[in-house]
Amino acid sequence: MILSAAITKIKNTQAFINYSRMWPYVKPYWFRALLAVLICIPIGSLDAIIALSLKPYMDLVMVEKSVQSPWYIPFGIVAFTSIQGMLNYLATYLNTWVGGKITNDLKFSLYQKMLTLETAYFDTKKSGDIVYRFNNDADQACSGLLDNLKTFVSRLFSSISLVCVLLYNSWQLALIAIFILGCAFLPLAKIRERIKSVMDKSVAAGSTIITAYNESFAGNKTITSYNLADYQKNKFKNNLNNIFSLKIKMIQRTSWLSPMMHVIVSIGIGIAIGYGSHLILTKQITSGNFVSFITALIMLYTPIKNLGNNFNSVQFSFMAIERVFGLLESTPKIKDKENALELKEVNSTVEFENVNFEYIKNKPVLKDINLVVNKGETIALVGNSGGGKTTIVSLIPRFYDVTSGAIKIDGIDIRDYTLKSLRDKISVVFQDNFLFSGTIKENILLGKHNATDEEIEKALKMAYLDEFVATLKDGLNTQIGERGMLLSGGQKQRVAIARAFIKNAPIVILDEATSALDNKSEAIVQKAIDNLMVDKTVFVIAHRLSTIKNAHRIAVINEGILAELGTHEELMQIENGTYKNLYEMQFRHQKDNTKELVGV
Fold this sequence. Notes:
Layout: H1 3-10, H2 12-26, H3 30-45, H4 47-63, H5 72-116, H6 119-123, H7 127-169, H8 171-185, H9 191-218, H10 220-225, H11 229-254, H12 257-281, H13 287-305, H14 307-328, E1 349-357, E2 366-374, E3 378-382, H15 389-395, E4 404-409, E5 412-413, H16 419-424, E6 426-429, H17 440-444, H18 453-462, H19 466-470, H20 489-503, E7 507-511, H21 519-533, E8 537-541, E9 553-558, E10 561-566, H22 568-572, H23 578-599
Parallel strand pairs: 3-8, 3-9, 6-7, 7-8
Antiparallel strand pairs: 1-2, 1-4, 4-5, 9-10
């Protein structure tokens, strides 16, 4: 248990930084935290009682064989040990209470931070990385912090009291013992550097295991339909073997500590016994002094023997704290400007002005997009797959920020508006809309938390969801499962449309909202979408050109460039035009399919 004292001596500055970073989370519970620390003082100090009591007991009973033996010593040892046990229980209880509170607060801060991070952050992370960094690291940071603090305080005062016993019994032997103690701590100075790279790899490997569970849960149908069970098992086994290899590397880099400490401690005890025998024979100390000294020395040295076994967990805790606060202290790339404006309503236009964008530096996705969309206008985006259509609409609610140029609403750059007010004015219906676990009603109310029953009923009708809900035993309170897995694709889309409808935002983005549906479901969802689009500024991406030919204008996006712009009739007049070719190709394909069905 001298572990924390060793770390403080070796990495005093780093430890202070880590603990000071945690102070704002400890502060609300400072009284209980302080009480837990203060209780550790007598817990550690009482260690010296046993060693100290052996001197009179040895001198009077074992050596002088006095009839007036100190009978109270055994009872005193039991009493003090009982007090120590009760205090230890109380300290553990307080530490657990404070630790639980701090962990919850830290996880809440991390979750808040996660909600502010830009979409690009999640594009580059696996689900396992997110769970490990935002959840597991918080657990490890807090538990390690408090356990180490309790251990440090109790062992610090235990060491002080035991050193006092050593000095009381023989200052000569005490100097030898303290010198050996210092030698035992020297190897720890280089351990952190030796194990940091392995620890970082261990964290990454641990996150892959979490990702594997998440992917197997979400992709269970794909695994089953493609007979991927053996493939997944082998992949998972390889991950486990990687973790095992990293654990072995960790042992190889740290396991020498404990045996070496055993040797150093044995040398110290051997020297103490040899020199102590000389001091007894020369009558410089009594046998009681010697037994008391050796007992205190063993109590002082014993935790050092197992130092290597515990050092890893302490380093993991410190590194977890560094990772946690690395996240908390990071600055989101997409955030409000200072003194940002509030977008209260959309009065005129949404304008793209020389917009360029790239996900990866020097690999442009959009090139000099110029487009003005008037209030109440429906603009359809068409073009080749991967041409940049979804990227364009993703820039409006600032999922990403433009690389250069500007997007303006009512003539003001959207980066000058607060994110909250900007996104309040935009409803998005995706191809694969995310529904949260809970009820149909709870998912619809995400569009407007304080919506009235009348507003909900109207949203259901406009989304053509009312008849379906009426057939359900629990109606709107029907549980839909994680990600809405108990609903069909068309039903999920209509719930998402109802959610967007009840939000009633002036700008609507429809990103391939019907592309994953069959013809029957698409027809119903398209009617719901038509209702949603009334009196709104709409950006629509659709894979079937027949569904967008009634848009006010159609923008053809090819390879990140605005190639053509106009109404359906205008674009069909362009000889060898991109839109005309796309439309005729799709029309011929649909006509061929119809002939095949008639032939059948």
